[in-house]
Specification:
The protein has one domain. Helix content is 76%, strand content 0%. The chain starts with a helix and ends in a 5-residue tail after the last helix.
């Protein structure tokens, strides 16, 4: 029963609206931190995690963000097959962690650089996952 709910939430998370909102919502956790409200950042993270519950399953797998989100799930089963993707995720994590420090210290230039780095690395990661999913989906299936 629980596994079915988790699988359903994962499928809802591949909705393109959910994917795009989550992409932009993650760095928004830095705004409350900038103003000294760490709890606000934690609240934004909670919304980020619960967001798939608000969406329906995607109508098709033709949208780019849907393919990228499915590609992430495929990649998670074999993350070492694509070390560049792992490196991009490391850059994403470092950018957010450094962005948290920059927001706490109210250093706007560093914070801006962290946000730009986050978007560049995360979008690069999603592009790789979408391409990987496309090639995975085109492979002939074993009978």
């Amino acid at each position: 029963m629980l596994r079915t709910r988790l699988t359903d939430a994962w499928v809802r998370g591949t909705n393109p609206w959910c994917g795009w909102i989550r992409l932009f919502l993650l760095p928004l956790m830095l705004v409350p931190v900038w103003f000294g409200h760490l709890w606000g950042g934690m609240l934004v993270m909670t919304v980020w995690m619960m967001l798939p519950v608000l969406f329906r399953k995607p109508a098709s797998g033709s949208r780019w963000m849907t393919r990228a989100c499915i590609g992430v799930q495929v990649w998670r089963s074999r993350p070492l097959d694509d070390p560049l993707a792992l490196l991009l995720l490391l850059v994403v994590c470092l950018a957010l962690a450094l962005g948290m420090v920059a927001a706490g210290q109210q250093t706007p230039v560093l914070l801006g650089a962290c946000i730009v780095s986050y978007f560049a690395a995360y979008l690069g990661f999603l592009v790789r996952r979408a391409r990987s999913f496309d090639s995975w989906a085109r492979r002939p299936k074993a009978s």
